[in-house]
Design goal:
By secondary structure, this protein is an alpha/beta fold. It has two domains: 146 residues, Rossmann fold, CATH 3.40.50; 266 residues, Rossmann fold (3-Layer(aba) Sandwich), CATH 3.40.50.620. Helices cover 40% and strands 16% of the residues. Strand 6, helix 5 and strand 7 form a beta-alpha-beta unit. The protein starts with a strand and ends with a helix. One of its GO terms (biological process) is phosphatidylethanolamine biosynthetic process.
Length: 495
């Protein structure tokens, strides 16, 4: 096989060897934009760069470096290339992902795919020799700079995992957005809150990055209702009827008692396109911490299941398509997915240690950028209730989807109300089933020495053996607490 090289020594694939189509060169178009990077476990900083890049043209191609190239130039990756590609392709502003893109951005590569400009943040990225990765495209006048998203990076997230910090938690998203909570002076908090509101609006745009896309809501209810199992009956009556629980269970058992369900109130943050005529309203929920291929594959499979159901009801016939276009002005899909996101304290109540690694604002932006999601509701309950499901902004959903497994053993079913309404659906285990926040943290811990070296090269202080020992002990204690809680609840209900 003949290997073509440029004058700079870069390998240029021959037709049939390019990682994705097209295999033949296409005309370079100034509206076709290229961005590249590692995109290790996906966060909203990556999405922010893609959004800004997409707004500069009409197509966005994303080059994703190989695991080997990243190891040589930067250090080990947390996620595999396949997992990173899945995350990039799920971003609503991305036209196409290009795997195995050169670590030093190559003019022949971007030109082959028809891209004129390369976009990157306002930081310097160097290769293993300390040279600028974008030196060739800069010299050609084909480089554009966008603002780096403040307050988030892969390095920062790794630090949170290793140091077990909770300083990133948000007690009340609404208060933070209104400038009433958080660090700094009153004026600084208001500026921060307005910037966060604007970011939510930006991430709620459609595939062009310019027009309204997703709806964004917040659900106001008591913390106990968001955190614990709910019931339609009086909680006092239930406690009396189960008064035979173990006398030594004390405050922890009271902590696990069911509480009276609440309708709560829904406050709209952003108005998007909203559901279109004939679409099925689908509800999913979770923490979506360290939003990754496991979450994305679940959402993709939910979408596919609903598209298959739509096929059976003749959604894709020419007659149905013509009717939708004449009514709405353009065609649209059969599903409208609403994603409920739990508060930080709710997740920490159930998972402990310093979960979630991303706070509710960060997790919300990650979900908003996903092309499978059409609306986001912040602050949703861990355990569903009839009151919540039947008062959703779009009415009772056509279906509630969840996976077949849970991250912890429960003595009750958080999805029982959806099952009683006959709207519960399950997605079977899939290729990325185990890729979640816990798995990602475990990968970091196993490769701690390599990740610390990566941190050191980026100017970060090493965390040392003591920090690792502390996290491991916290994880063991969390397992002991789960077991104690399970036994106490079983005793409470005579199970």
């Amino acid at each position: 096989m003949i290997r073509r090289h440029s004058a700079k020594g870069e390998w240029i694939p021959s037709p049939g060897q390019w990682p994705v189509n097209p295999q033949e060169d296409v005309p370079v178009d100034k509206n076709c934009i290229w961005i590249d990077g590692c995109f290790d476990f996906s966060h909203h900083g990556h999405a922010g760069a893609m959004l800004q890049a997409r707004r500069l043209g009409t197509e966005l191609l994303v080059g994703v470096h190989s695991d080997d190239a990243i190891l040589e130039n930067k250090g080990p990756t947390v996620m595999t290339l396949k997992e990173r590609i899945a995350a990039v392709e799920a971003c609503r502003w991305v036209t196409k992902a290009v795997p195995n893109a050169p670590y030093v951005t190559s003019l022949p590569w971007i030109s082959h795919y028809g891209c004129h400009y390369v976009v990157h943040g306002d930081d310097i990225t160097s290769d293993s020799n300390g040279e600028d990765c974008y030196r060739f495209v800069k010299a050609a006048g084909r480089f554009k700079v966008v603002k780096r998203t403040p307050g988030i990076s892969t390095t920062d997230l790794v630090g949170r995992m290793l140091l077990c910090t909770k300083t990133h938690f948000i007690q009340s998203l609404q208060r933070v957005l209104n400038g009433e909570e958080g660090p700094g002076s009153e004026e600084e908090r208001k500026i921060t809150g307005e910037a966060m509101k604007q970011r939510i609006r930006d991430y709620a745009t459609d595939s062009t990055g310019l027009a309204p896309g997703s709806d964004v809501w917040y659900w106001h209810a008591s913390r106990s209702v968001k955190e614990r199992r709910t019931t339609q009956s009086s909680p006092d009556a239930r406690r009396h009827s189960h008064s035979h629980h173990h006398p030594g269970s004390g405050s922890t058992s009271r902590h696990n008692h069911a509480v009276k369900e609440e309708k709560g109130t829904f406050e709209k943050f952003v108005s998007g396109k909203g559901p279109q005529p004939g679409q099925s309203i689908i509800y999913v929920d979770g923490g979506f911490d360290l939003f990754s291929s496991g979450h994305i594959e679940f959402l993709r499979l939910v979408t596919r299941a609903e598209e298959e159901a739509a096929t059976r009801r003749d959604w894709y016939t020419e007659e149905a398509k013509t009717l939708r276009i004449s009514t709405a002005g353009s065609d649209y899909g059969p599903v409208f997915i609403v994603a409920g996101i739990h508060d930080d304290e709710v997740i920490n109540h159930w998972k402990g240690i310093n979960y979630p690694i991303m706070n509710i604002f960060e997790r919300g932006l990650c979900v908003l950028q996903c092309k499978y999601v059409h609306a986001v509701i912040f602050g949703t309950p861990f355990s569903l209730s009839n009151a919540f499901l039947t008062t959703l902004p779009y009415g009772t959903p056509h279906a509630v989807y969840h996976g077949v497994t849970s991250f912890m053993p429960l003595t009750y079913d958080p999805y029982a109300p959806a099952k009683s309404l006959h709207i519960y659906r399950e997605i079977a285990n899939h290729e990325y089933q185990n890729v979640n926040a816990g798995e990602i943290v475990e990968r970091i811990m196993k490769g701690r020495a390599m990740y610390e070296e990566r941190q050191r090269l980026k100017g970060e202080k090493g965390v040392g053996e003591e920090a690792v020992r502390r996290r491991e002990e916290m994880e063991k204690e969390q397992e002991r607490q789960k077991e104690r809680r399970r036994k106490e609840v079983e005793g409470q209900f005579g199970l």
